[in-house]
Structure formats: C-alpha cells, structure tokens
Specification:
- Helix content is about 15%, strand content about 30%.
- It is α/β, with parallel strands linked by helices and about 220 residues long.
- The strands form two sheets. Strands 4-3-2-1-5-6-7-14-9-12 form a ten-stranded mixed sheet, sandwiched between helices.
- α4 (about 115-125) links the parallel β5 and β6.
C-alpha cells in the first residue's frame, strides 16, 4: 500500500463529499448525497461509503480503518494522504482542508457521531470554524442534518419538524428567519445560548439569514421534503 501525493488529483465535480467515522447515516440521507461528487474518506469513514460509489481520496492516520478496505480503495484508483497518528488535527479537519485545497466551495459531510461526545462536539464546532468560512457545508450526522449558515440559507423539511439555530465561534448577528414558528427579526444569537433551540418549520421551506458570524441550523430528525 503506497501513499500518493494527493495534490496530483483534480476536482471531478463542484461538490466534495466527506465520509467520516462514527455511526453510519440512514440510507435516506445517503440518497441525498450528490452522485457525481468528489469523494473523500476520512480514515474509517471509508467503511461508510455506500456500495457502488467510488472513492477519490482516503486521508488520515489510518489507525481505525481496515487494511483490506484501504487496499481495495487504492486498487480502484483512490489516492492516499497519510498523516502520523500523533497529529494536531482530526481526520475530518484534514479532509476539509483537502477539499479547500482542491478548490471546492461546497462540501457534504456524512457521519461524525460515534458515541464519543468530545469527538461529536469537535466535529460540530469544526463545521462552523472561521477557517472554512468559504465553504458551503451540509452535514448528515445520524438521523440529523446540519446546515452551516454564514449569509442566507434555505432549510427544507416537513412542517412541524424541529430546527435549532446554534451560534458557533462567536455571536451570530442580526438573525432573520421566515417559515419558522418562532421568528427572529434582526436579533443576535450568542454561543452557548439556548435562544434558538427547538424552533419548528411551519412550511416546507424556511430561510435563515445573518449579517455576521456563523450558525448551525440543526434538524435533529431530518425528514426532507
């Protein structure tokens, strides 16, 4: 098994999909992942790539991925980007950086919840990191969907479905919403505040906009439209 310079690959589509470790997401969520995306497996996320989908890049320290699965990915044309086990960043962060380095501006993250609360919180906060402010990020974590809001975002779902708005990395300024039961009209949401928790969609499509900062729009039991 040979490590390959990952910089040699080129974007195959305008969306990168990152499969990360933890619990697999439901098939309904996988069905929403773009079929022609550039696929990055973050270490053991390789095990969650659905059958029939190719893998373009496997990245991580490979401490929790099956060696046979790695060999099979390489045989199918995947590149490997190997990092030492004693590294400064999680496999998901490395994968997000790889997507940025390849010029992608839209990323879908699949997975990321596996029972360790520290890993889950790190992954959730990472999505809203200022380092990735140029990325449009959507994540499917277990039964949930998380959309990172940095300017204006549409949130689809079933009327009555929960949608919590959580500020990350600093205050989310001048939050405005439509299509939610408890509207916000120019209010600030602060990190650690429960002000935006347990809102609900009143229509199949809601909007959330902010003037500065970042929000996570979390649908804990995402059902789609």
């Amino acid at each position: 098994m040979q490590s390959v310079d990952a910089g040699a690959s080129r974007p195959a589509a305008n969306v990168a999909v990152i499969f990360t470790g933890g619990d697999p997401v439901p098939p309904a969520a996988l069905a929403l992942v773009p079929a022609d995306a550039f696929v990055i497996a973050a270490d053991s996320g390789l095990h969650h790539v659905d059958a029939g989908r190719g893998v373009d890049l496997v990245i991580g320290d490979f401490d929790s991925v099956d060696a046979d699965a790695l060999d099979a990915a390489v045989s199918s044309g995947a590149l490997l980007e190997r990092h030492p086990e004693a590294k400064d960043h999680t496999d998901l962060e490395l994968a997000l950086r790889a997507a940025v380095g390849r010029g992608f501006t839209s990323v879908v993250v699949v997975g990321g919840y596996g029972g360790r609360v520290d890993h889950f919180l790190t992954n959730a906060l990472l999505l809203g990191s200022v380092e990735f402010s140029d990325l449009a990020i959507t994540a499917y974590v277990g039964a949930a969907r998380i959309i990172v809001v940095r300017t204006r975002t549409e949130v689809d779902g079933r009327p009555g479905e929960l949608c919590s708005l959580l500020a990350v990395g600093g205050p989310a300024r001048a939050v405005r919403t439509t299509g939610l039961l408890y509207p916000l009209d120019g209010e600030d949401l602060l990190p650690g505040s429960s002000r935006g928790v347990s809102n609900q969609l009143t229509a199949p499509l809601a909007t959330v906009s902010i003037e500065a900062g970042a929000l996570l729009a979390v649908q804990p039991d995402f059902g789609g439209t």
